[in-house]
Write a structure and sequence with these properties.
globular; 17% strand; alpha+beta; 7 helices
């Protein structure tokens, strides 16, 4: 692989609510669109995990690396505060979104399309018209225990977020995990299809997770929630060896 960003100088600060210097650079956003048909909405956890894998899929795509056609947009985005916005689409809206340059990632019930970064105020018209607020989804059954072989993105149990906001936070956690890995570990994870889980942490485990030295997403508080930690990325025993919190 080329275009290693694990040593990107702004990688940790890009998710730091106190990193005001990042606001001085031109601002970009990574658009994601989740397909939500009226009769067949995706399960919430599957949508969160599919969004996280969509971010990883774009970051590892050859078009986003080196001299690829998306590479400069990705570098501009990474040089400022890392922003992701999730919008929802159905029917003709989804078909128009699929016609734009991007990548669709499919889960068990979810479809998420990720696009190369765009200026904060420069969304393509067919995406800008999509709704962003109030995206809520449910799980029809309790999610199973996460696979210990793969990374887990642990959500702050004390923060309530819409599904769209949580999808963006899961994408942040996946990106921090990606930045923390070596080229070899990234390639193994990519070849396996980016297995991962997204789960709410137990309340008594959240504090230790945030103090463990594992990658932590700290939301800037621009939308929905106050600034603070939202996601901790814990490594898997086989993929994404970031380290694990002792039980």
């Amino acid at each position: 692989m080329t275009g290693d960003t694990s040593d990107h100088p702004t990688a940790p600060a890009a998710f730091d609510s106190g990193a005001s210097c990042l606001d001085e650079a031109p601002q970009f956003v990574l658009p994601l669109v989740v397909r939500i048909e009226r009769a067949t909405p995706p399960a919430r956890t599957d949508a969160l995990e599919t969004a996280a894998r969509a971010v990883l899929t774009l970051l590892s795509d050859e078009r986003a690396l080196g001299d690829g056609v998306w590479a400069q947009a990705v570098r501009d985005w990474e040089d400022a505060r890392i922003r992701k916005v999730v919008r929802r689409a159905r029917g003709a809206e989804w078909r128009r979104a699929e016609a734009l340059d991007g990548i669709t990632v499919t889960g068990e019930t979810a479809e998420v399309r990720v696009f190369p970064p765009v200026p904060l105020d420069g969304w393509p018209g067919d995406l800008a018209r999509l709704q962003v607020s109030g995206t809520n989804l449910d799980d029809p059954r309790h999610p199973p225990a996460p696979d210990p072989a793969a990374p887990v993105l642990w959500l702050n149990p004390g923060v309530e977020m819409t599904a769209g906001k949580t999808m963006a936070q899961a994408g942040h956690g996946a990106q921090l995990a990606w930045w923390a890995l070596s080229d070899t570990d990234r390639e193994q994870w990519r070849e396996a299809g980016f297995p991962l889980s997204v789960r709410a942490a137990a309340e008594d485990r959240w504090g230790p997770l945030t103090r463990s030295g594992l990658p932590v997403v700290r939301d800037a508080g621009f939308t929905e929630i106050a600034p603070g930690p939202t996601v901790v990325a814990e490594g898997g025993l086989r993929f994404g060896p970031l380290g694990r919190l002792e039980a």
